[in-house]
Amino acid sequence: VIEKFTENTRFCLICNYLSKIIPALQSRCTRFRFGPLTPELMVPRLQHVIQEEGVDVSEDGMKALVTLSSGDMRRALNILQSTAMAFGKVTEENVYTCTGHPLKSDIANILDWMLNQDFSTAYRNITELKTLKGLALQDILTEIHLFARARLRPPPGGAQPLPPACTNAHCLPLSAVDFPASVRIKLLIKMADIE
Fold first, then answer.
1. 19 Cβ partners below 8 Å, 6+ apart?
2. Please, are residues 188 and 175 in contact by the beta-carbon 8 Å criterion?
3. Where is each Replication factor C C-terminal domain found (predicted)?
4. Cα–Cα distance measured from residue 26 to residue 156, given in angstroms and rounded to the nearest whole number
5. Most buried of 43, 74, 79, 187 (most Cβ within 10 A)?
């Protein structure tokens, strides 16, 4: 159809994966690549849709929509619609539940188990939670990574100097010592708390 009517018609194809369009069509197209939207651009448009549709959305629900959509307005609108239809009110907990992402309380529990329990108990608890709530391992790991990144991020002015206890030769970097992963996580979190 496209090849037949190119003389007098213009077509606009929107796709997520360019490789899904056959090469014959790709050669006749001009490509435009759009990056993810910033929250500053997404929030006003989402608020407009929310107002027009009369959806009840809390402030934390709006933040969850923007966070989970990762700059994709179509995904944000789909999550908004699904959550509103499933729960009526769009809150952070409802958004995370509707999308199948782990709640912050789930991540806090998982980190607590990893840091404070032996491996067998932590593994069993995490597996039970994952199965009970239908969570994807990738989502759990992503949320733990985001938590650790936010928690271990250096202050805006740059990295702080090492505390006096770590200025001598006895203070080795974590990678130089063969600690178990749970011990390294504990040390990193404790180091983040040092001011």
1. none
2. no
3. 102-148
4. 45
5. 79
